[in-house]
Write a structure and sequence with these properties.
heterotrimer, A mainly alpha, B alpha/beta, C mainly alpha, B: alpha/beta, Rossmann fold, seven-stranded mixed β-sheet, 15 helices, C: mainly alpha, two-stranded antiparallel ribbon
Amino acid sequence: MNKIKAFIDQRGLGSFLILAALILVVFPLAMDIFRLNLVGKYLTYGFVAIGLVMCWGYGGVLSLGQGVFFGLGGYAMAMFLKLEASDPISTKIQSTPGIPDFMDWNQLTALPLWWEPFKYLPFALVAVLLVPTLLAFVISFAMFKRRVGGVYFAIITQAVALIMTVLIIGQQGYTGGVNGITDLKTLLGWDIRTNSAKYILYFANALLLLGCIYFCLWVQKSKLGTLLLAMRDKEDRVRFSGYDVSMFKVFAFCLAAMLSAIGGAMFTLQVGFMSPSFVGIVPSIEMVIFAAVGGRMSLIGAVYGALLVNFGKTYFSESFPDLWLFLMASLFIGVVMAFPNGLAGVYTSHVKPWLARRKATQAKSQALAVPPADNPPPASPPPAKEAEVPGLIRAT
Amino acid sequence: MRDHASPKPRSTLRRHLMQGLVALPLIGLSAIGQAAPPATAVVNTTKLAVTDTEVTVGQLHSATGTMAISETGSIQAEQLAIDQINAMGGVLGRKIKVIKEDGASDWPTFAEKSKKLLINDRVAAVFGCWTSASRKAVLPIFEKENGMLYYPTFYEGLEQSKNVIYTGQEATQQILWGLDWVAKEKKAKTYFLVGSDYIWPRTSMKIARKHIESVAKLGKVVGEEYYPLGHTNFNSLINKIKVAKPDVIFIAVVGGSNVSFYKQLKAAGVTAAKQTLLTISVTEDEVLGIGGENMAGFYASMKYFQSLDNANNKAFVQAFKAKYGAKAVIGDVTQAAYLGPWLWKAAVEKAGSFDVDKVAAASVGIEFKGAPEGYVKVHPNHHLWSKTRIGQAQADGQFKVVAESPELIEPNPFPKGYQ
Amino acid sequence: MAFADMLNIGMMQGFAGLSLFAVLLLMGLGLAIIFGQMGVINMAHGEFMTLGAYTIFLFSTLAESFFPQFTQSYFLVAIVAAFFVAFLAGWCVEWALIRHLYKRPLDTLLATWGVSLGMQQCFRSFIGPKEVSPTLPDWLMGSWSPHEGLDIPINGLFVMALTLVVTGGVLLALYKSRWGLRVRATVANRPMANAIGINTKKTDRMTYAIGCGIAGVAGAAFTTIGSTGPTSGSLYIVDAFLVVTFGGAASLLGTVASAFGIAQMQSISEFFMTGSMAKVLTLMTIVVILMMRPQGLFASKIRH
């Protein structure tokens, strides 16, 4: 028993296990399937949030285009499900049976060639992972090789998000346009709309998320993670040490993209449709706030951030719809001004010392002779990166 | 049926009288409901939120976000209808209680809220949605959970569901007669089609093109253009139109783009004096933003205009303004939203039950003589038979009705020959 | 088509490009100061523009209901007022938020996004969710038609003239005035500027507020060509940032050049293809060029 405890403490897994218990045991017991399905939806944003922790918190690369990757993953999944839902029998009312309904409305008479491979689940799954990652690679490789600063990168990812939205909406014969791809029914014949399916999908999603967090924790603990941190704080020194800094940044960004894409695919499965409203600029920035509220340095915190912000959104939009935007606004401002490291920062700088003090006093009162537990000041999280802005250091 | 009393009361009771007035023609329909209310166990066999005194319905529109601009009118009209129905004693002796949910202009939120309304709240009917995208997002949920949706917007058609009553016009109803009118009255031979880039304008333009070029052979389409939602710069488009010199510009541009489009059109010297323009996307609501002086003289093809001259409409407009202020304007969709609760009430009373299956079955053939737009009737495909009118925009922001289809037009959501 | 017609269309199309250029430049100018010079990623820029537009609406409503004799002339006063309203709002935002964040540019992005959400909801709560349209003076609407078939939009001319004035003013102020000197000194080397007695805090606040004020003027000008609603600002924000980034953030001249380039690219491609695809093509070109040449068109000679 003690061994296990020691192992957990050593790996810093305590909070990970609490989160696991919360989403695997507490939520399913405490909620009906409707609310649980909502939590499942929020957790898919958790994937995006942990991706942002990796690339923004650790890599110092702020992306305002995570919605693009979330959407690409979601669309790849939706395309497979849509093709399965569009068998010739259930679409016999169309002028061309056997193709998705929106294609028929847009006068397409045959399935476009690039849709064909999405008839096969393995291909769709590979596409979920690879297409967004490749796009992320293309965007980031070109930019980081030329040492583009963080601010510019953020603005360009934003432009990519805009391009993607316009493209998806404009090519509605191939993408479903602004309506998105709707009315998804089955996965390999298994009805994803039933309650039992929702339970299974919820648990699959939760386990996948925990797996991804575990993987990211592992990356953070590895040499790679250390290098990412070092590079974020003093990029030049890492470069002078002989490391190819740009490739680490590319890696962090691609990892974030892939995580977002997994989230998108799980979103499609649980919610039953995908639309360009997740791809644009606004949802992408909202995704950043999930990570910021939870704490841009903490994987676990980011998941809580995604859960809390979305709970808040659902609750407030049900009860005080007018206040929601004000609350969101104060979240953005408050996180930046008062809690730059989010909930996780509050935890490490306030709650943890307090707990430790309490523990110490308790220990003291229990055994007067025992010296106070050593209570080192919490390792204060590194300050947010001061990204360089050329204009500020312009030579005269 | 009683006579339509002309609206003359000006007392403190005005609002109630107004509400009563609009409802007068309905009393015939609701005779069943006026007797002792039937037992709950009889009228509700599917565990809906119906008690001995109350029936719960949902309202699902965007009160926030970009679509709030358009959906506010629908929210108000549905509330007005429900208040009026309650003032008359409710439905099957039960007052209507409304649960309002905000879709926040976000399609997944619409899906989420519709699940909440149907699964958690067990509402008997939902009045809501505005954009096609939001309807598409909730439709599978309504079909799976067997809910009842009253959808108010004119839309692209290509859809028919047991669980939806479409109180707005589908594309062929709105477009074809308008095109025929413009071809006949304005001797139009060449047409330039412009739309925002999403499914409703695209489908509408497809139908318009087929009608112009192959079905009715009105002439020729000399241009067809789509711009992203929110686009604000139309100068290049206007030049393209000038190159093509069409007899008619046929427009389905929505939202903020509308304002830019008409302002720039006027600035480029394209005014009603020189150019015939027919739109299917501008109601009185939109004119508020565009400014009447920028629209003056252009034509719109709709089933309803606030200026319609009949007793039902006068009472409706008066009741609406009494409730929401003298400056309130009523567009086509607002009127269609107003029909929803009345049609539902009539269907429930015909079925003698709140059960969705029975209401859906009873809906077919329901007539509503008290509609502000005039007589409407529910077609077996769950759309409404309705007339189409041509309104000419005036500088004060109202439309002058210049033509009206002689007969009710049959809804045809899957038009043969237009695919 | 007759040659004269083609000439007319060509001229009008050229004018369309120029007027889009004026719009983009006006949009980008304020941001070029705030983002380019100060390094603040002001995501609320669009909302400051909307604030200016609503100021025009307020004046137009006032003029209509109380001073009907001014309905033809209020517009010019209202533009000045739009500048000061946005200026004041910018001043407050700088004081409350931005001054704490100069060392964390990425965080200014989040904070100002919050500001923009808050402002949008304020517009919605206090003015209403529906789009409004100020009644514009008659002399602003309509077209100038030197000969048959050629129509030059007057509002386009007006926006161009205004852009010229504002750009000239900004250039003059930045390079010929005391304030400009202080701004450039602060931007170049903050500690040194402090050391020689420049109040950099005051300079920052002034600069930010002026940038916002220019956004207000831009918004005021846009009421002649577009719509005003709570979320109108969000339509412009990406375009504005691209104009500034594409030009090379620290160079005002670059902003002018990039606004011109983007405007011509967009308006010409719109003439030959559908609006959606023209937009995609323009944005793609910008992004690809920025990938090749991340410092923008007019790079400042810096090491970083």
